[in-house]
Amino acid sequence: MNTSVPSGRATVTLLAAVARNGVIGVDGGLPWRLPGDLPRVKALTTGHVLVMGRKTFDSIGRALPGRTTVVVTRQAGWSAADVQVASSVAAALELAAAVDDHIFVFGGAEIYAQTLARADRLELTEVHAEPAGDTYFPAVDWSEWVEVARERKDGFDFVTYERAAR
């Protein structure tokens, strides 16, 4: 666990597949299929809480089994089966922290941008390509992060970063 996380505060991990050009999505979906990526996501997140935006949830189409899902939306009255709803990222993180001490932020771009400063860890699938896309991961100040693990695959790497001591 990241030792820079204050005791009593939930750990926030951003989880994303990101191309070299920062693309994370196109037309409401992913621009790739990466063997092993979905099993990794499942292994990392099962038993924990996922925080995601409504568009990301809609692209998945359902709550993922074995995880608590908190969806951030400004749409009044929006609901879905097996989902908790929050009207802001701050409210979503508060709801999530009441459930588990490890929160995974699952997208999309706006939610990543609003949680990056709060993140303790990045679990990235770094895709060795520059696909066309319309959704981007926010700019990261890499001087604030330390790579702690890398698993090389064919065309992508699984990489874990932890925030440098604050």
What are the SSEs and their pairings?
Elements: E1 11-19, E2 23-25, H1 37-45, E3 49-53, H2 54-60, E4 68-72, E5 83-86, H3 89-99, E6 102-105, H4 109-115, E7 121-127, E8 135-136, E9 145-152, E10 156-163
Parallel strand pairs: 1-6, 1-7, 3-4, 3-6, 4-5
Antiparallel strand pairs: 2-8, 7-10, 9-10
How would you sum up this structure, described in words?
The protein has one domain (11-25, 35-163): Dihydrofolate Reductase, subunit A. The longest helix is centred in the middle third of the chain and has 11 residues, at 89-99. Residues 1-7 have low confidence and may be disordered. It has an eight-stranded mixed β-sheet with strand order 5-4-3-6-1-7-10-9, with helices on both faces. The protein has a two-stranded antiparallel ribbon with strand order 2-8. The chain has helices at residues 37-45, 54-60, 89-99, 109-115; strands at residues 11-19, 23-25, 49-53, 68-72, 83-86, 102-105, 121-127, 135-136, 145-152, 156-163. Helices cover 20% and strands 33% of the residues. It is an alpha/beta fold and 166 residues long.
